[in-house]
């Protein structure tokens, strides 16, 4: 990790020097090199658990990164953009996050084709650019949910403006394969079709954003697949076999609002994530409310965030059959093992409902450079995972996360 | 029992102080008046305050009309941010980072001086800029909005 951080800092120095030359070399404005970096240190005040990579020992790696973006304007209507990210955390993927061509046939219509960030929520496509938002980490209940951060496909945006408003309609369609953290395990997934529709309305300093998204996902979970295959042989537990299917359609609904002025801002966002297969993917309801006051150049802010997760239990047909079966039956050992397997799957699911309060301050030292400090008070329910990892016995699911950050765009 | 009672005179003074505080806050920002200008051959003849805001904040209209800005430390830019955008420079920069790194829009082009801005507008169409209202404008530059 240290080596990776060193390489990030080294890259920043090399880059800053390079930028001076690139500005001269690329004086024709057709190729633009820009970037952003964030160095985030965090500390969790308990040794009974870890939270999003933070523990009771100062950690830099979970959120520190360096991003570089190159834009090349081919002509009036076509441009190419590539954005690469180098993350300090070696468990997270570094590499090209965005790589797309933009076609703009009309002033109010544009298409992007290539590898794109999935625009689920208000800050989803700009999560890596900490300078663009006031927190150090946007509410994890929403922004760290089990979704697919990028996709390969096409995005179309149509804009319409009037004297007092500006509206944009955005639609995207694509596919993606990758891995996500599901029930604290790195899990392979394949989204065959992913699409969504986003409407954003701006009126003066007020912004509304509403969106719907849908994806057909196939998650690679060998324990589910082998159990389903075993139960299929009995030809009498079809409901359970269906409930063990690793394929699910996932629907996402989002609504957000933000108001900004010279002195203060306030924002709220609500999200529902609804898989149709809820035995291993949770249905999530989550929202946050946030507000801040600007003592320019310092902004102080407070946020309340909450999430509620729900799973479906497996049908009771296997355990019902087992109850009525004599132990001497030849079916008994196999079924009893299947029932055990089902209850193991139910017990291994993460129960990540979590409430949190965050208070923080952002100091805009100068344009494009900000320092931040946040304290997040985490409150989970006893007996649940509450987004914590490596939980020790006796941990009461209450902890505080302290973070400081430097955000820079160039 | 000690009861804190304000006389009518004290109340009047407090009310007056509050009134003055409220009414002077916006005025203290509005030092100079601004013109939003463009070339007379541009495809536009007037703009509302909100349309100017859309152009400078990467809205749909910014694809048709390109915005020109002055340097960050310019007092004219500060006046423009406060009186038309209604946000601090820092918040605008943060918003631009979001638009730029998600491929939605590019930051306004920056020129160093008001004279450079006027010359640029005089030679390019479909570009808008803010200048102080006391600047002398060439005959092919028109005012779209003033504050």
UniProtKB/TrEMBL annotation, chain A:
GO cellular component, as recorded: membrane
GO-annotated molecular function: porin activity
Segments forming domain Porin: 19-382
Domain of life: Bacteria
Protein name, as recorded: Porin-like protein
Organism for this UniProt entry: Marinomonas communis
UniProtKB/TrEMBL annotation, chain B:
Superkingdom of the source species: Bacteria
Name of protein: Phosphate ABC transporter substrate-binding protein
Organism for this UniProt entry: Marinomonas communis
Organism taxonomic ancestry: Bacteria, Pseudomonadati, Pseudomonadota, Gammaproteobacteria, Oceanospirillales
